[in-house]
């Protein structure tokens, strides 16, 4: 009995000891919070801190409490502002506070939020083992290791900060692992996405060190003289211990700081300045240096204008608070910061003032009017704007006209008040007709819908009402807007979709897109911008054709007539159009995942395209083309098929888009000829690019190129191979001939393909891109081969454009290059 009790006691002691050891290990691990291991994660306000508490890694939010963008970054622990020196996901912010950093099952670092979209931090240097850990070093370097070997480190991919020990330049030169780390400024002080300024060693003279503004202006700030690195402007950088290294495989610049208590680093600011920071003890100081050949200049914007103009009102700008009258908004300026706006305004003497149109300091708006009127608006708003000339001198002009301005302001207030009263009365009178209709139909979008529905009973009445009703029918929302009884709504069951295309009022489209707000813009192509909108509770994509667009009334009419009659799950649906006010606007169903190329050629997002999904997309495109060529009421040749014209809905279903260049074929017509070649080189068949001949086989060729891009993850138009072919088609053909087709496989996918399935897709793609149209299969054959995987497929002949022989080298091709060629490059909807 005593023995049994002793044994039981021993077991309890052993169990307690084990628990104590485990608890001690966990405690030590929490104390040494500079390491992340599999099974643990970093979330909420938790951080990693380097051993000597110099650097801290964690999630941060920009833009104050109203911002919903979160980033993973590293900052100096003693910095009171916690300004990150490195940002992991600067182009892919997380949208909520449920962010998590962890090491995935395959050993790679990922961050995610409640959307469960995993952003791969080390996407360009993947781990081959699941036995990895990540550590934050006292140098500020975040390193992913496997045992004693380094898989990836943040120093390889810097953002806007140059830290001691970091190397900028060229590495692994002449290999397929070549790297070119450089610094890129933030877009604005509160937006970490890539800005307009790049600090780097230029490719044409690697002994120089300087700053690029966009792709145009380069300002050299230093150079290597053969013995030491020198700088061209007065700055504290001369005190840094710079090193320049050059060999066959690498050329780079680096620097180190001396002393245990001192620490220095450089930042390329959103305004293009070089900021030299120093930390002594816990005190941090900074020196701002404009990048100018003229060291007497005190404005960074001067450094990025080749020849600053001598304007009558001067080249300096004064900062003030006010309201810019009738500003011109630059629609293409979403990626620009306030310093870019200053450079653009400074180089144009007619520009009186500039400002950013977003609270985060991005986007540009300009004023080109009377400077006196600009100053007259001073104090009337809270927007920060910059006015040309000296503010105090210009403001002295104001009193002479202040009485006139007061009278004009008084009349303006009275006029607006009267208009508001009249409109309110009209709305009150008409509202009884549509009371509760908007909230009954679409309660979650009542404010927008009620405004649009009111338009159905006012002004244009029946015409607007019929257009909105047709719009709902396009979406198979069986709703009738009945103006005979304002308290009833007809719900029609079993009614087939009406193929009459709704022609919507410009006001409806404008309200749906928030007056074509830049914030709603999805992208811009050769034919104009595409906006996201909401109309009667449904998300839409609005394609607003530019007046400078190559697509004129004929192409517009063509797309409207064609697409409105097409009914297939793999074709984008046209929901309506607008031809008011000389506008040419098309309204499509909204595609949440944008275009295929935005996934396929993005090193992070392509991970979501596992092999089964890629095959599904290929099959969907093939089904859509087969419908166009054979089963639609009109036999249609697309003529501009490419990955950017394959859109993906929220479930990643592929849909063919952009029919502006499509052609209708007659019942017995086989091929046609055009003197105006349109489309995108790299996807055009040789007979079309050279002779203007097109047929269904032209689309088959384009489909083959798309197939090769999908299975390889490489873009044909930008593909290069130093030892092999001119393009992706030639490279695939050479691999096929040598029995090494598997080398073309895109291995980034988390679920790699079976070699048999991959070989079948490669075989079919090569059949589609054969040089002679008669050798290519029909889309019915392609669909059959994809579905059945016939083992007796014919051997493909040499791919078109795979060498400098044939069409590419012909005189006809040279002649073609001088003819009129247009490009269709609409990238998103």
From TrEMBL:
<dbReference type="InterPro" id="IPR000719">
    <property type="entry name" value="Prot_kinase_dom"/>
</dbReference>
<keyword id="KW-1003">Cell membrane</keyword>
<keyword id="KW-0547">Nucleotide-binding</keyword>
<dbReference type="InterPro" id="IPR024171">
    <property type="entry name" value="SRK-like_kinase"/>
</dbReference>
<keyword id="KW-0472">Membrane</keyword>
<keyword id="KW-0812">Transmembrane</keyword>
<feature type="domain" description="Apple">
    <location>
        <begin position="311"/>
        <end position="390"/>
    </location>
</feature>
<keyword id="KW-1133">Transmembrane helix</keyword>
<dbReference type="InterPro" id="IPR003609">
    <property type="entry name" value="Pan_app"/>
</dbReference>
<dbReference type="Pfam" id="PF07714">
    <property type="entry name" value="PK_Tyr_Ser-Thr"/>
</dbReference>
<protein>
    <recommendedName>
        <fullName>Receptor-like serine/threonine-protein kinase</fullName>
        <ecNumber>2.7.11.1</ecNumber>
    </recommendedName>
</protein>
<dbReference type="InterPro" id="IPR036426">
    <property type="entry name" value="Bulb-type_lectin_dom_sf"/>
</dbReference>
<keyword id="KW-0325">Glycoprotein</keyword>
<dbReference type="InterPro" id="IPR011009">
    <property type="entry name" value="Kinase-like_dom_sf"/>
</dbReference>
<feature type="compositionally biased region" description="Polar residues">
    <location>
        <begin position="816"/>
        <end position="829"/>
    </location>
</feature>
<feature type="domain" description="Bulb-type lectin">
    <location>
        <begin position="33"/>
        <end position="157"/>
    </location>
</feature>
<keyword id="KW-0723">Serine/threonine-protein kinase</keyword>
<keyword id="KW-0418">Kinase</keyword>
<dbReference type="Pfam" id="PF01453">
    <property type="entry name" value="B_lectin"/>
</dbReference>
<feature type="domain" description="Protein kinase">
    <location>
        <begin position="516"/>
        <end position="793"/>
    </location>
</feature>
<keyword id="KW-0067">ATP-binding</keyword>
<keyword id="KW-1015">Disulfide bond</keyword>
<feature type="transmembrane region" description="Helical">
    <location>
        <begin position="409"/>
        <end position="429"/>
    </location>
</feature>
<keyword id="KW-0808">Transferase</keyword>
<dbReference type="InterPro" id="IPR001480">
    <property type="entry name" value="Bulb-type_lectin_dom"/>
</dbReference>
<dbReference type="Pfam" id="PF08276">
    <property type="entry name" value="PAN_2"/>
</dbReference>
<comment type="similarity">
    <text>Belongs to the protein kinase superfamily. Ser/Thr protein kinase family.</text>
</comment>
<dbReference type="InterPro" id="IPR008271">
    <property type="entry name" value="Ser/Thr_kinase_AS"/>
</dbReference>
<feature type="region of interest" description="Disordered">
    <location>
        <begin position="778"/>
        <end position="829"/>
    </location>
</feature>
<feature type="signal peptide">
    <location>
        <begin position="1"/>
        <end position="32"/>
    </location>
</feature>
<keyword id="KW-0732">Signal</keyword>
<dbReference type="InterPro" id="IPR001245">
    <property type="entry name" value="Ser-Thr/Tyr_kinase_cat_dom"/>
</dbReference>
């Amino acid at each position: 009995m005593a023995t049994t009790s002793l044994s039981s006691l021993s077991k309890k002691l052993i169990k307690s000891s084990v628990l104590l050891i485990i608890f001690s290990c966990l405690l030590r691990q929490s104390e040494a919070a500079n390491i992340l291991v599999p099974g643990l994660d970093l979330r909420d306000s938790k951080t990693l801190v380097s051993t000597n508490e110099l650097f801290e890694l964690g999630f941060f939010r920009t833009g104050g409490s109203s911002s919903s963008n979160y980033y993973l970054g590293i900052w100096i622990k003693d910095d009171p502002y916690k300004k990150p020196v490195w940002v992991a996901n600067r182009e892919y912010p997380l949208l909520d506070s449920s962010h998590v950093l962890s090491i995935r099952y395959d050993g790679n670092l990922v961050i995610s939020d409640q959307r469960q979209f995993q952003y791969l931090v080390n996407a360009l240097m993947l781990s081959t083992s699941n036995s990895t850990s990540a550590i934050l070093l006292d140098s500020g370097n975040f390193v992913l290791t496997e045992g004693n070997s380094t898989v990836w480190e943040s120093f390889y991919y810097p953002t806007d900060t140059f830290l001691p020990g970091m190397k900028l330049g060229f590495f692994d030169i002449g290999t397929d692992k070549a790297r070119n780390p450089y610094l890129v400024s933030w877009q604005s002080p509160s937006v970490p996405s890539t800005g307009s300024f790049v600090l780097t060693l230029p490719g044409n003279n690697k002994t120089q060190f300087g700053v690029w503004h966009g792709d145009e202006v380069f300002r050299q700030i230093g150079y290597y003289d053969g013995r030491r690195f020198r700088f061209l402007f007065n700055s504290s950088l001369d005190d840094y211990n710079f090193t320049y290294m050059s060999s066959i495989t690498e050329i780079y610049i680096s620097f180190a700081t001396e002393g245990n208590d001192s620490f220095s680093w450089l930042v390329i600011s959103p305004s293009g300045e070089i900021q030299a920071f120093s930390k002594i003890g816990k005190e941090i100081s900074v020196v701002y240096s404009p990048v100018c050949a003229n060291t007497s200049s005190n404005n960074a914007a001067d450094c990025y204008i080749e020849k600053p103009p001598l304007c009558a009102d001067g080249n300096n700008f004064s900062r003030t608070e006010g309201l810019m009258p009738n500003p011109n908004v630059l629609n293409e300026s979403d990626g620009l910061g306030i310093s870019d706006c200053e450079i653009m305004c400074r180089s144009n003497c007619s520009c009186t003032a500039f400002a950013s149109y977003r609270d985060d300091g991005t986007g540009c708006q300009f004023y080109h009017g009377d400077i006196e009127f600009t100053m007259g608006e001073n104090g009337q708003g809270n927007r920060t704007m910059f006015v040309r000339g000296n503010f105090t001198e210009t403001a002295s002009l104001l009193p002479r006209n202040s009485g006139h301005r007061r009278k004009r302001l008084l009349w303006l207030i009275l006029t607006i008040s009267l208009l508001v009263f009249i409109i309110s009365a009209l709305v009150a009178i008409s509202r009884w007709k549509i009371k509760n209709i908007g909230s009954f139909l679409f309660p979650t979008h009542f404010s927008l819908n009620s405004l649009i529905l009111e338009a159905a009973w006012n002004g244009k009445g029946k015409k607007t009402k019929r257009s909105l009703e047709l719009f709902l029918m396009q979406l198979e929302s069986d709703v009738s807007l009945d103006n005979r009884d304002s308290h009833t709504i007809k719900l029609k069951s079993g009614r087939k979709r009406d193929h009459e295309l709704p022609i919507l009022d410009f006001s409806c489209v404008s309200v749906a897109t928030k007056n074509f707000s830049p914030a709603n813009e999805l992208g811009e192509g050769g034919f104009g911008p595409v906006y996201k909108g909401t109309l009667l509770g449904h998300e839409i994509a609005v394609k607003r054709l530019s007046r400078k667009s190559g697509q004129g009334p004929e192409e517009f009419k063509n797309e409207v007539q064609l697409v409105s009659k097409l009914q297939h799950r793999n074709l984008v649906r046209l929901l309506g159009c607008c031809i008011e006010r000389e506008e040419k606007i098309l309204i499509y169903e909204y595609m949440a995942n944008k275009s295929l190329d935005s996934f396929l050629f993005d090193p992070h997002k392509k991970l979501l395209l596992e092999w089964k999904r890629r095959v599904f997309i290929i099959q969907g495109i093939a089904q859509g083309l087969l419908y166009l060529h054979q089963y639609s009421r009109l036999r249609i040749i697309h003529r501009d098929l490419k990955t950017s014209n394959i859109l993906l809905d929220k479930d990643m279903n592929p849909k063919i888009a952009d029919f502006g260049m499509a052609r209708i074929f007659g019942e017995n017509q086989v091929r046609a000829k055009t003197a105006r070649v349109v489309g995108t080189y790299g996807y055009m068949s040789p007979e079309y690019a050279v002779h203007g001949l097109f047929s269904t086989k032209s689309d088959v060729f384009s489909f083959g190129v798309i197939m090769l891009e999908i299975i390889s993850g490489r873009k044909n138009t930008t593909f290069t191979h130093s030892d092999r072919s001119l393009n992706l088609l030639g490279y695939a053909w050479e691999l096929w001939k040598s029995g090494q087709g598997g080398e073309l496989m895109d291995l980034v996918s988390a679920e790699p393909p079976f070699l048999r399935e991959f070989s079948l897709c490669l075989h079919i793609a090569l059949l589609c891109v054969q040089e002679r149209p008669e050798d290519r299969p029909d889309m019915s054959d392609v669909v059959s081969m994809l579905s059945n995987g016939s083992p007796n497929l014919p051997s493909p002949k040499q791919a078109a454009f795979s060498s400098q022989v044939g069409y590419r080298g012909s005189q006809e091709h040279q002649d073609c290059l001088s003819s009129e060629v247009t490009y269709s490059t609409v990238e998103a909807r």
